[in-house]
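I hope you will forgive my troubling you with a question about protein structure. The matter concerns a single protein, recorded as an amino acid sequence and a row of C-alpha cells. Please examine both parts with care and let me know of anything in them that strikes you as inconsistent. Here, with my thanks, is the record as I have it:
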Amino acid sequence: MNAFTPAAVKPPVAVAALDALDIRVGTIQAIGPVPRSKKLMKLTVAFGDHIRTIVAGMQQERTDFEALVGRQTLFVINLEPRAMAGEVSEGMVLDVGYADGLTPALLVPERAVPDGVRAG
C-alpha cells in the first residue's frame, strides 16, 4: 500500500450529533446504473422489515457491481429522501476512502448480522 497522510481531525461534535444518525446494516439485493447519470448507481437494499432504494455515486469507482449483490454494509437511513437524476434516494451508503481521494471501500460487519441491526 502507498504512503498515506491522514487529513486533519475535524472539530469535536456533541455525542447527540452522532446519536441523531440512524445507521443500520442492510443487504444489497440489486444494483444497476441510473440511466440519466454517468456517476450514480441505484441499489435495492433489504433492512429486515423493509426494502429501500439508495442512490450512490459509485458508477466510476468499481467495475464489478454484481460482486456487491448479497453483501452487507452500513447505511444511514434517516436522511430526508433526495431526488437524484430522476431517482429518489432513501438513505446513504457508508464507505471509506472517497474523501481522501482513494478508491472507496464499503464498511462491512465482521460477520453476518440480521438486516436492520443498528450501529452504535
